[in-house]
Predict the structure.
Amino acid sequence: MSAPATETARPVQGSGLVISLVAGCLLLALAYQAGATKLLLAAAIGIFAGVALYHASFGFTSAWRRFLFERRGAGLRAQIMLILLTCAISFPLIASGGIFGRPVSGSVAPFGYAAALGAFLFGVGMQFGGSCASGTLFTAGGGNTRMLATLSGFIAGSVIATAHLPYWWSLPALPSFSLVDSYGAFAAFGITAIGLGGLFLYSRQREINHFGELEKSPDRVDLIRGPWPKSWGCVALAIVSIATLLVLSRPWGITSAFMLWGAKLAEGSGFSLDAWPYWQSRQAWLNRSVFADSTSLMNFGIIVGAFTAASLAGRFAPTIRIPIRELLIALCGGLLMGYGARLAYGCNIGAYLGGVISGSLHGWGWLLFGFIGSWFGGLALLKVPSTQPDL
């Protein structure tokens, strides 16, 4: 999504920039009108995340695929650095219970058959869809119209899964386990650093052994217009993760908003969810405005921030004609991600990133089975090559 180092810088798209800035101001106003300062801050954090994600081209899908099939590991190593930077701050915050009078709690969940299957389905889906949860939002905001099919499937799959959650949650699972609660912040960070550090070093040496050197960062770096090196993206998204913890008292999440949007669309179309056990205890949440939902506001912010970044980079250019096959693959990928995310307590952000930075076992389980799913999905795509870039 970012311009190659050899490409001449494109002019800023003034009209797109104006529209994106107006959209950002409107989003902040709607968040403020919802009546809570934290909602305004959530929207602002989302906008910053969208800019960072776009300018650093920071996605999980292509990073995992390149590591698995091309032996390039820069993207994976960037994710590891993001997690370790965040854990260095999140673990002490979670261990202390909060800071400056604000509570902070981690995302800790059990991990069993349902979560393993969900992470696997999500891994397959992110390869088919060409993006992860955050990638779907920022690439759609950046003008990738194929991602609208992925997002549509994501929303639909999220709602469909809620019809079956009582069954999935009845399956055996390991009890919730937190490194931070069990061993303290310092020891939990050491364990996490050893695990992820080993993967970091393996990825680095594997790439050197195969190519003789590590992949170089872009020669041209521009803070305002991009592209950003992955290291900048790491720092920016670590700030997003910590800011979310402090403002919302929980880790960053994405996919619960997709479920809410889908449920609202279903009810608006005349389809009642009252008989579904999952929604019977969530009617108040379902009846509130999406602008009163902090996760929705962050997601809208990511889209707006990416639109702003794409306009600054002169690269907002939606494609109208997309092959039907591409749309169907993207739609299927979105369905798998939406359904899988509900089984696995979230996506690559909410379950994987959110789980690991909370010291939760389920974050590590998500990483393992999400990787396996990505491998299967990538193998399948080798037989049906896509013409679209993925994130």
Observations:
- The longest strand covers residues 98-99.
